[in-house]
Amino acid sequence: MKYLLLWSGYVPGMKKAVIPALENKRGICGHYIGEKIYVPCAESIRAALPYKFRAAFDRSGGVLWFDKRGADYPASVTLCYAKSGRDMVTLYLQPLTKGHS
After folding, report:
1. Distance of CA 24 to CAs 21, 39, 53, 79, 86, Å?
2. Is 66 part of any domain?
3. pLDDT, tens digit, for every residue of 43-76?
4. Residue 71 half-sphere exposure toward CB, CA atoms < 13 A
5. String of DSSP letters for 28-87
6. Domain that holds residue 53
7. Could you tell me if residue 100 is inside a domain?
8. Burial 66-76 (b: 16+ CB within 10 A, else e)
9. How far apart are CA 51 and CA 68, in angstroms?
10. What is this structure's pTM?
């Protein structure tokens, strides 16, 4: 399984990337394919980001939000500025494989 990395707004230097999935063996959140749960690889997300956004991703802890309505909705994470805490950009990880709800 793979994910397509998308984002909100204008982000200089950002390019779409395909992010590999890892099986989630510790929790129940993620995208269900068959009997397994998959989540995007945090290291691959970080590597795909422009340099100045990597620290914001590290501050987020790589915590992804998954939509409870179904397996085909994108996961998301919001990156924030260090000093003000204001939102910088929201990353969306759209599954490229159809799952089940």
Report:
1. 9, 6, 25, 22, 30
2. yes
3. 999 999 988 889 989 988 877 888 776 667 888 8
4. 17
5. S-SEEETTEEEEE-HHHHHHHS-HHHHHHHHHHTTPPB--TT-TTSPEEEEEE-TTT--E
6. 2-95
7. no
8. beeeebebbbb
9. 32
10. 0.84
